[in-house]
Write a structure and sequence with these properties.
heterodimer, A: 320 residues, mainly alpha, MetI-like fold, 2 domains, 13 helices, 78% helix, B: 359 residues, three-stranded antiparallel sheet, 9% strand
Chain lengths: 320, 359
């Protein structure tokens, strides 16, 4: 338990560090949200100054950081200049969409990676394994952006998939089954993009971890006892190979989040990605910080889950 | 003889040989690629900013080998303007006029590596005919020329950022590994923090901090250095590991025993042992940063018009109409893939050769 507690404290400190860092960096920026307004001759300098002081932009950095921290504890995450409302509710909707997308993709990618990686490892050196290797390495060399653009191209040209958005017009009128179907149709392409973008390294790691375990003496002993290959793979080898994979699981969330930002923008999924890009271009500082923080929270939470799983499966860690 | 071959195989020499061959091929391909990009002005028929407003979104120009009468031409040719742009219905057809493809023609001036000025292009056709190998964009600019010139920007971004990363990495990793103790602790904790960040989001946050309206070159340099600085952790951790084991090697200990200074030890004995890791990391980082530049520019946060970069070439694909009607605008996206293939192949071969441990 001490191990988990330490990880938790570590995570909180990390989040704090990230918030100071991202907040600090944004303060370095020359100009703010109201700079373009100042160029407008119809708005007096007085009005701009009043606006800036209303949003606290005229205060020094530590005080603004403190204000922001307070609003985090209030559950506001600061005010969006562009929307004039607290950031948290704005972000929550987008975060839900991003979570839906990345969660689905994460699940599918890992299911595929584990089954395919194990299949490859069990057939090491055979043609299936080699073909798989070629497929993963060629997929690895295709940049994510190109992959997503190609999917968009296919969707636009064929019209098989809805392009962009999360729901069709008239979503509210659909039955529950219809809603699910509509959502799934919109989800399919972005999720597929994410899965394809993150799958190759996962498959490779699962394969190499399994190969390492399959060479261990205890596996040979299990086979010698006449235990079926299926059982050897699933019951004996997989739990041992899971150790490095659980760490990778944490890292894969980071990759997934980065890729999802891009896929959301390219395929217009209404998640954090497009929201963040717009906020950056508008210098909507608190939205940017909020989005960065939120993705860091996802990341840290994912790493914690991975740690907890590691704790549950590996007795060596519990010994410490 | 057979026995010897088996011995050699047993030692894995054949593997090393094939990896070395792979490396040689990758380096050759890479040099060719970079050479073409470096000499973009020579290989590109037009200037990257030259517009032809009469020909927006022209499809790739067809190159003909057979003349009207079915006679095979010695010199391939293209047809005049009508061939590559839509013409009003009923307009006079002047398209039967062939314009032969000429080699080493004089055209728009360009600079090689920013120093030498020249006007000679590898190929071209006489005006008013146009030669758009990959079609033209919305302003009637030659996509092929823009692709080559854009490669210069994107590659430069990758190189500079990778140099940044590796330099900071060698500094931080070298110090952490060599001195150890609390310096090591602080540096590696910092690296963990950096590693835990979703780097694309971070890059975005940093980009948000940069002023949006400064000169293109300033944006470019700032962006590139920031990208490079964010990526210092991986090389730093790897170099720290190498330095950690290198400083305990007997010859290093012997040199230290003879009274060698820290600076001398680092320069003469310890750092040379990290070169293999450095080279591998460098080859891995360059394509990553090229990709980062492409991504940022695609999202409108990187280098802007009229500077061509691979990311800038892809931005038009955000428009639905471009995707649905002008398939050739997708060509640049496909053409950057070989670049990544050769880079990854080189990095892979280097990694196998040196048996460096990936993170």
């Amino acid at each position: 338990m001490k191990y988990l507690a330490r990880r938790l404290v570590h995570s909180v400190l990390l989040l704090f560090g990230i918030s100071v860092f991202s907040f600090g960096i944004l303060q370095l920026a020359p100009g703010d949200f109201f700079t373009p307004i100042r160029l407008n001759p119809q708005v007096s300098a007085h009005t701009v100054a009043a606006l800036r002081s209303q949003y606290g932009l005229d205060k020094p950095f530590p005080i603004r950081y403190e204000h922001w921290l307070r609003s985090v504890f209030r559950g506001d995450f600061g005010i969006s200049f562009a929307y004039g409302t607290p950031v948290a509710p704005l972000l929550a909707v987008r975060a839900r969409n991003t979570l839906l997308l990345t969660g689905t993709a994460l699940l599918v990618a890992w299911l595929l990676a584990i089954s395919f990686g194990m299949w490859s490892a069990a057939r090491r050196g055979k043609w299936g394994d080699r073909a798989g290797g070629i497929a993963t390495s060629s997929l690895l060399t295709v940049p994510d952006l190109v992959l997503f653009l190609a999917m968009l191209l296919v969707a636009v040209r064929t019209g098989w998939f809805p392009t962009g958005g999360m729901m069709s017009a008239g979503f509210e009128d659909l039955s529950v089954g219809g809603k699910v179907k509509d959502l799934a149709a919109h989800l399919f392409l972005p999720a597929l993009g994410l899965v394809l973008a993150t799958l190759p390294p996962l498959v490779r790691h699962v394969r190499s971890a399994m190969i390492e375990v399959l060479e261990a003496p205890f596996v040979r002993a299990a086979r010698a006892h006449g235990i079926s290959e299926r059982r050897v793979l699933l019951r004996y080898a997989l739990p041992v190979a899971a150790n490095p994979l659980l760490t990778l699981f944490g890292y894969s969330i980071a990759g997934m989040l980065s890729a999802s930002l891009l896929v959301e923008v390219v395929l217009s999924w209404p998640g954090i990605g497009p929201f963040l890009v717009d906020a950056i271009l508008a210098k909507d500082v608190y939205v940017v910080v909020g989005a960065v923080m939120l993705s860091s929270v996802f990341l840290v939470a994912g790493n914690l889950v991975a740690d907890a799983l590691l704790f549950a499966t590996d007795p060596r860690i519990r010994m410490d | 003889m057979h026995y010897f071959l088996q011995r050699i195989r047993g030692f894995g020499w054949t593997d090393v040989l094939t990896q070395r061959q792979k490396l040689v091929w990758a380096v050759v391909a890479l040099s060719a690629f970079c050479g073409v990009v470096l000499l973009a002005g020579f290989f590109a028929p037009y200037d990257f900013a030259a517009q032809d407003r009469d020909m927006p979104f022209a499809p790739p120009t067809a190159i003909h080998f057979v003349a009207g009468g079915g006679r095979l031409q010695v010199r391939p040719f293209v047809y005049g303007p009508r061939d590559s742009s839509p013409i009003p219905v009923g307009a006079a057809a002047d398209s039967d006029q062939p314009y032969p493809l000429r080699w080493f023609v004089r055209g728009a001036p360009y600079k090689i590596a920013g120093v030498f000025t020249s006007r000679v292009h590898l190929f071209g056709v006489e005006k008013p005919a146009r030669m758009f190998l990959m079609g033209s964009d919305g302003y009637g600019r030659d996509q092929f020329s823009r692709f080559l010139f854009g490669g210069q920007i994107s590659l430069l971004a990758g190189l500079i950022a990778a140099i940044f990363s590796v330099s900071v990495g060698i500094l931080a990793g070298g110090i952490a590994g060599y001195y150890g103790g609390w310096i090591d602790e602080i540096l590696m904790r910092g690296a963990e923090l950096f590693l835990a960040l979703p780097w694309l989001y971070l890059l975005f946050a940093v980009r948000a901090a940069l002023p949006l309206h400064i000169s293109q070159w300033q944006v470019f340099l700032l962006l590139v250095s920031v990208m490079g600085l964010i990526g210092w952790t991986r090389p730093a951790r790897l170099i720290r590991g190498v330095v950690l084991s290198a400083k305990e090697r007997n010859f290093v200990l012997a040199a230290r025993g003879m009274g060698a200074s820290d600076a001398y030890l680092l320069r003469r004995h310890v750092l040379p042992q990290t070169y293999a890791v450095l080279l591998t990391q460098f080859t891995l980082l360059v394509p990553q940063y090229v990709l980062a530049e492409v991504t940022l520019t695609f999202l409108g946060l990187g280098v802007g018009e009229p500077m061509p970069s691979w990311g800038a070439l892809l931005t038009s694909l955000q428009q639905y109409s471009v995707l649905s009607s002008y398939w050739w605008m997708f060509l640049p996206a496909l053409l950057i893939i070989p670049f990544f293939v050769v880079f990854y192949a080189a990095a892979d071969a280097l990694q196998e050769l040196h048996k460096t441990v990936p993170l």
